[in-house]
Design brief:
Length: 252
């Protein structure tokens, strides 16, 4: 606060008086509050269109054992079977999947969202299906490991596939993702056991099928044109294709 000098008319002495400045109100902050540690809220996801398949990546937290083992594979198949009994079973389906060390890839279909149902004013089949899978898998894995706590990262990655080329690229990425991570196979026609590749009908070469699944999984047939037949306009997928730049895997 500033001070000014003035004269005291009654006594002639010099005194000081304080100059009062008007209080300025700070403008109120608009918009969402910032989170701690500099994090900002995520943008809302776009509204899903039922004619577009979706590629979703689900990444696990650090400190968990590798997902590429038979117990986890059986757990994934059980969760997929249980989803066919959920309230959203007619509006959501996981068609393809791939299990990697610390993440899962799934290609799914879901009806338009949000959609209205008697239970809720606005029910999104895509969100409900993915959330149901995440919760069911996490509970079963924690029980299997005898642990508590979170299994997944806070947010999953979603990519809506809007063209035949996008669908083929994602199918190639998911089915042969194990090659991208350096897994070596022996013999032609080898595929990833920890995926739905055995039931995939888009291979350009014959599969080397020498084992039976301990937990048989009835394949979910795609309903969308893009995931069913549209992507095949760009050709079928070879088992030795490595996701990324066009190259073939090393087969020993």
């Amino acid at each position: 606060m500033g001070r000014v000098r003035g004269s005291d008319m009654s006594g002639g002495g010099r005194t000081s008086r304080q100059l009062e400045l008007p209080r300025v109100e700070r403008p109120r902050r608009r918009g969402p509050k910032l989170r701690a540690f500099g994090r900002v809220p995520h943008r809302a996801r776009p509204v899903h269109k039922g004619r577009h398949p979706v590629h979703v990546t689900l990444r696990a937290r650090h400190g968990l054992p590798s997902f590429r083992q038979q117990l986890v594979h059986a757990l994934v198949l059980q969760v997929l079977r249980d989803q066919r009994e959920r309230a959203y079973k007619d509006n959501f389906r996981i068609v393809h999947f791939s299990i990697q060390t610390n993440h899962l890839h799934v290609i799914l279909e879901a009806d338009d969202g949000p959609t209205k149902t008697p239970a809720t004013r606005s029910r999104n089949a895509l969100r409900s299906g993915v959330s149901g899978f995440l919760i069911s898998f996490a509970r079963r894995l924690n029980k299997l490991l005898g642990r508590k706590g979170k299994v997944w990262d806070d947010r999953y990655h979603r990519h809506d596939l809007e063209s035949p080329h996008e669908v083929k690229t994602s199918l190639r990425y998911v089915m042969n993702n194990f090659r991208k991570h350096g897994h070596v196979t022996f013999g032609a026609g080898a595929f990833d056991y920890y995926s739905s590749a055995q039931h995939f009908d888009g291979w350009s070469d014959a599969l080397f099928d020498w084992f039976e699944e301990p937990e048989p999984w009835t394949q979910v047939r795609p309903r969308t044109w893009l995931l069913g037949t549209g992507w095949k306009r760009h050709g079928l997928i070879h088992t030795e294709d490595v996701p990324g730049p066009r190259r073939r895997a090393v087969v020993r």
